[in-house]
Amino acid sequence: MIYGFHILVADDDADDMDFIEEAILTIEPDAILLKVKTGRAAVRMLEQLADFNLPQLLILDYNMPEMNGPEVLEYLCCRDKYASIPKVVLSTSNSPMHLRECLERGATEYFTKPNTKAELNDLVKHMLEYAARLNDQ
Q1: Global pTM?
Q2: pLDDT tens digits along 33-55
Q3: 1 assigned to some structural domain
Q4: Which one, out of 5, 42, 46, 102, has a CA that is 20 to 30 A from the CA of 66?
């Protein structure tokens, strides 16, 4: 079990945010979630955090106001400070074009948002493995 790692979640859909938060905290109750509703807010939060306090996982919605997931990835990809943070994009779209766009901009993985709680829990377990690997370094 991992204790107290930070996860930044950026999603403008309140229901999706609640589902993601519930799944993470069910699997890893000691996780500390930083939640924002826009891509620009995610960038601002990351810029304000000290290097030692950066999240071990970044979960981005593809479609958000101000800056979408790919735009956030593009901003982060050219800054060494964020290179080691796993970046996962969740989207309602299963478009191969969106997948390719995100991976080319530095996403670790791109997932279509699941339809059931069980599928979301499985997906979150997979995402938390990225945070665990970073935490072990």
Answers
A1: 0.92
A2: 999 999 999 999 999 999 888 99
A3: no
A4: 5
